[in-house]
């Protein structure tokens, strides 16, 4: 299935959960936050939240800033 | 002049108490080692970070800012830098809250254009209201407009942070007269955010009665950032002490420091 990930078009297997997505991106264990279609998905719900085709996903972290 | 002496009370923002009045940004450093060393030398307890898209396909061992500036040691103040609309700023704050385990203290900034990075106060006011209603403690970057500063306080922002001059410009306090008015009206902490170029700028802001200053470029862009971080720490402390001590009045004529009486030629 096709999703929009951090502004890029990407293909993934359908029925992917957010935890699986994070794992595929080698981001497991890193301090990140996830938003799907402009709604926060809390960390506690990553394992049970499945993505749908066309979803827009943002994964962010903290970087240097003033 | 008031009869009572000024008393020192620590900086308190939304119930959080800080012994340092210097807030430090983490942008523009050469690497995280330099960031960590400068933050440490500054004596700060409150450190700003930005929230950005994670690089996809990154090295899993890529260093993390929050290892250099750990949440166990510092209060992290996520910012909304780079947001030009209230909507984006609110989204960024919600992401930050999730990122930092429910931490609800944020630095709101909504910018007007990328040439001046001047605040868009219309969008800032909108975002502030939404965020306060959503339970955020909002420290807000704004222009040095006394009316807007008061309005942000009325909305419920826990600290108002007018610019001294443009972000990253190092021009210092370009309009101390309006800052004075903002300070005179304020019932929440007023911090100068943006424009500090050198320790004397920071000291002046503190002498005027600001509750603190937020500094990034003036430290990170110094030839020796760690040394400048220490200089800023001293300046903020000196300025605060001077505010509490209350300076001497200015006089039109000289006043000798050595007594006239007892001169050998008297």
TrEMBL record, chain A:
<dbReference type="InterPro" id="IPR010035">
    <property type="entry name" value="Thi_S"/>
</dbReference>
<dbReference type="Pfam" id="PF02597">
    <property type="entry name" value="ThiS"/>
</dbReference>
<protein>
    <submittedName>
        <fullName>Sulfur carrier protein ThiS</fullName>
    </submittedName>
</protein>
<dbReference type="InterPro" id="IPR012675">
    <property type="entry name" value="Beta-grasp_dom_sf"/>
</dbReference>
<dbReference type="InterPro" id="IPR003749">
    <property type="entry name" value="ThiS/MoaD-like"/>
</dbReference>
<dbReference type="InterPro" id="IPR016155">
    <property type="entry name" value="Mopterin_synth/thiamin_S_b"/>
</dbReference>
From TrEMBL, chain B:
<comment type="subunit">
    <text>Homotetramer. Forms heterodimers with either ThiH or ThiS.</text>
</comment>
<comment type="function">
    <text>Catalyzes the rearrangement of 1-deoxy-D-xylulose 5-phosphate (DXP) to produce the thiazole phosphate moiety of thiamine. Sulfur is provided by the thiocarboxylate moiety of the carrier protein ThiS. In vitro, sulfur can be provided by H(2)S.</text>
</comment>
<feature type="domain" description="Thiazole synthase ThiG">
    <location>
        <begin position="13"/>
        <end position="259"/>
    </location>
</feature>
<dbReference type="GO" id="GO:0005737">
    <property type="term" value="C:cytoplasm"/>
</dbReference>
<dbReference type="InterPro" id="IPR008867">
    <property type="entry name" value="ThiG"/>
</dbReference>
<dbReference type="GO" id="GO:1990107">
    <property type="term" value="F:thiazole synthase activity"/>
</dbReference>
<dbReference type="InterPro" id="IPR033983">
    <property type="entry name" value="Thiazole_synthase_ThiG"/>
</dbReference>
<feature type="active site" description="Schiff-base intermediate with DXP">
    <location>
        <position position="107"/>
    </location>
</feature>
<keyword id="KW-0704">Schiff base</keyword>
<dbReference type="GO" id="GO:0009229">
    <property type="term" value="P:thiamine diphosphate biosynthetic process"/>
</dbReference>
<feature type="binding site">
    <location>
        <begin position="194"/>
        <end position="195"/>
    </location>
    <ligand>
        <name>1-deoxy-D-xylulose 5-phosphate</name>
    </ligand>
</feature>
<dbReference type="Pfam" id="PF05690">
    <property type="entry name" value="ThiG"/>
</dbReference>
<comment type="similarity">
    <text>Belongs to the ThiG family.</text>
</comment>
<protein>
    <recommendedName>
        <fullName>Thiazole synthase</fullName>
        <ecNumber>2.8.1.10</ecNumber>
    </recommendedName>
</protein>
<keyword id="KW-0808">Transferase</keyword>
<feature type="binding site">
    <location>
        <begin position="216"/>
        <end position="217"/>
    </location>
    <ligand>
        <name>1-deoxy-D-xylulose 5-phosphate</name>
    </ligand>
</feature>
<comment type="pathway">
    <text>Cofactor biosynthesis; thiamine diphosphate biosynthesis.</text>
</comment>
<feature type="binding site">
    <location>
        <position position="168"/>
    </location>
    <ligand>
        <name>1-deoxy-D-xylulose 5-phosphate</name>
    </ligand>
</feature>
<keyword id="KW-0784">Thiamine biosynthesis</keyword>
<dbReference type="InterPro" id="IPR013785">
    <property type="entry name" value="Aldolase_TIM"/>
</dbReference>
<keyword id="KW-0963">Cytoplasm</keyword>
